[in-house]
Design a protein that fits this description.
The complex is a heterodimer. By secondary structure, chain A is mostly helical. Chain A has ten helices and no strands. Helix content of chain A is 57%, strand content 0%. The longest helix of chain B is centred in the N-terminal third of the chain and has 19 residues, at 3-21. The chains are: A mainly alpha, B alpha+beta.
């Protein structure tokens, strides 16, 4: 429901239109952009220092027991995914960066709650169907990009999951940090061994979503990178307009009134 | 230089500076920041600490038995030699009214507790055993620890191994001077004749091969605490 009517748009010159675009509200509020990049640092430190700690005992089984559910028991992860240099270093970084991650998450969630941005991410009825349509579009079963709001249904589900996974990381982390002082929490998660496993799985989920997110930024919508740094975004370059699939999209072209004219058939 | 170039140059220099300042240990300047975080974390951990907290292991839970790791810092396993050093005694001293000097017999005649608890190692593993011994709080009462006693240093004959504790954690009912493990007398692999054991601290705080319990007005660091590991190390 934009304020700008077609009338006023039609009456402006191309120059004025681009000035208007530049002065338009940024796609992401500066608080969202700042917390996004702080989160990149905090999450990066937490994951790499956490893997350094994990490598000190790269399995889950209690001494004298076996663990059912981790196929790589005893295999350390390569050093290049770890940070902190040694166990104490990894721990010191982990227990310092956790406050950065926690505070940053709190600022982000408080902001999107007060400022209304949560509406772009909250799940709605029909999201599952929309996700399915996006998948069909991405695998060339569907020809046209599904209609979307600020984000497509797959993005929405991802961005909605990230803070939830973050909260789970904090809760499972508390359970293995203080298994005696917070024994009820640790017991609710199945005891120390299982809580440590959940903490690990939450990390895996965060890594998978982050890696897919970064790949999709470059493969589908590189224009969004600018929108997360300066806030600037040209709606005519949106994936919906460009009918963009991963690795299959055109450079944005200036808007033309109709794209129906063309030599197909 | 337009804005785009400026942004690119800024981003480039930040990345370069970060990469060159970091080895896998992190930038050297972060050390004081990490120490600051450790001090703040200690306040949070002390705030979370409850003397009523308990680590409970189900009565039918499997114990680690022979899979319980043995560990010491000396080149060879420390074994108390009566021929060389005379009868082993546990000295309880420092900020106390009546210092004690206890033989193993004295210890085993005291009121004892047996507890099946978890052992939390800093490396991330846990092990279970049944420990038998005397509560540190009992020794503190017996020796008459003064209000000056804010910390306790647990010293050993395993080279210079020792670790100091805050008084509250040492007085926790599950913090004991253990002389028995899994219903046998403690073996030399696990710190014989006696050691500290507690589920409220990470394993490295539980000094083995114990010789001395020293109540102190100030903290006294510790073997691993002086080497970069967290001093408080509460669980």
């Amino acid at each position: 429901m934009g304020e700008a009517s077609t009338e006023s748009l039609g009456s402006t010159t191309a120059d004025a239109a681009s000035t208007a675009r530049r002065k338009a509200r940024p796609r992401h509020h500066w608080v969202v952009r700042l917390t996004h990049w702080v989160n990149v640092i905090a999450l990066g430190l937490m994951i790499t220092s956490g893997l350094r700690i994990f490598n000190a005992y790269p399995k889950f089984a209690r001494r004298g027991e076996t663990f059912c559910c981790y196929p790589f028991e005893g295999t350390p992860l390569p050093d290049w995914v770890t940070f902190g240099g040694w166990l104490a270093g990894g721990r010191n970084w982990h227990f310092a960066a956790m406050w950065l991650l926690f505070a940053n998450g709190l600022v982000y969630l408080t902001f999107i709650y007060l400022h209304g941005e949560w509406r772009d991410l909250a799940p709605r009825r029909g999201d599952v169907r929309d996700m399915w349509e996006m998948i069909k579009f991405y695998v060339f079963v569907r020809r046209d990009h599904p209609h979307q709001g600020k984000h497509n249904a797959l993005q929405k589900a991802t961005y909605f999951s990230m803070p939830i996974l973050g909260a789970l990381a904090v809760i499972t982390g508390l359970a293995i940090w203080k298994p005696v002082q917070l024994a009820p929490l640790t017991n609710a998660l199945g005891g120390f061994v299982w809580a440590r496993y959940w903490h690990f799985l939450v990390m895996v989920a965060l890594v998978v979503l982050s890696v897919v997110h970064v790949i999709m930024v470059f493969a589908v919508d590189p224009y969004s990178l600018r929108s997360m740094i300066t806030g600037g975004y040209d709606p005519t370059t949106s994936p919906e307009v460009r009918n963009a699939r991963p690795f299959f999209w055109r450079r944005a072209v200036p808007v033309t009134p109709s794209t129906d004219v063309g030599g197909q058939q | 230089m337009n804005r785009r170039h400026f942004l690119a140059a800024t981003a480039g220099s930040i990345v370069t500076a970060t990469v060159s300042a970091c080895n896998s240990y992190g930038p050297g300047g972060a050390k004081s920041l990490l120490r600051y975080a450790e001090r703040k974390n200690e306040q949070v951990e002390r705030w979370l600490f409850r003397s009523g907290s308990r680590n409970r292991v189900a009565a039918d839970a499997r114990l680690s038995g022979r899979a319980f790791p043995r560990y010491f810092i000396s080149e060879r396993m420390p074994v108390w030699s009566e021929a060389e050093r005379g009868v082993w005694r546990l000295e309880v001293g420092g900020a106390v009214k009546t210092p004690l000097s206890l033989t193993l017999d004295d210890l085993t005649r005291m009121p004892s507790v047996s507890q099946r608890v978890d052992h939390f190692c800093v490396e991330g593993w846990t092990a279970r055993a049944e420990w038998t011994g005397v509560r540190v709080s009992h020794l503190a009462r017996l020796a008459g620890a003064t209000p000056d006693a804010q910390y306790v240093d647990f010293q050993s004959f395993d080279s210079d191994y020792h670790e100091s504790w805050d008084m509250e954690s040492a007085m926790h009912p599950q913090t004991i001077i253990a002389y028995g493990m899994d219903r046998r007398m403690l073996g030399p692999g696990h710190g014989a004749p006696a050691r500290v054991h507690s589920p409220v601290k990470l394993g490295y705080k539980s000094t083995k091969y114990l010789t001395r319990v020293l109540f102190m007005p100030t903290r006294n660091g510790g073997y691993w605490s002086d080497r970069g590991y967290e001093w408080y190390a509460g669980v």
